[in-house]
Amino acid sequence: MEVLPTGWTRNEMAKLAAIELQDGFYVNLGIGIPTLVANHIGPEIDVTLQSENGMLGLGPYPMADQVDADIINAGKQTITELPRTSYCSSADSFGMIRGGHIQLSILGAMEVAENGDIANWMMPGKMVKGPGGAMDLVAGVRRIIVLMDHVSKDGIAKFRRSCSLPLTGQNVVDMVITNLAIFERPDRQSPFVLRRLAPGIDAALVADLTEAHFER
Amino acid sequence: MVQKIYSNAVAALDGHLIDGMTIVAGGFGLCGIPETLIAAIRAAGTRDLTVVSNNAGVDDFGLGLLLRTRQIRKMISSYVGENREFERQYLAGELEIEFSPQGTLAERMRAGGAGIAGFYTRTGVGTSLAEGREVRVFDSETYLLERGIVADLAIVKAWRADPHGNLVFRKAARNFNPLAATCGRVTIVEVEEFVGSGEIDPDHIHTPGVFVQRLILAENNEKRIEQRTIRAEAA
Question: Which molecular-function annotations from GO does this UniProt entry contain (chain A) (predicted)?
Answer without folding.
Answer: CoA-transferase activity
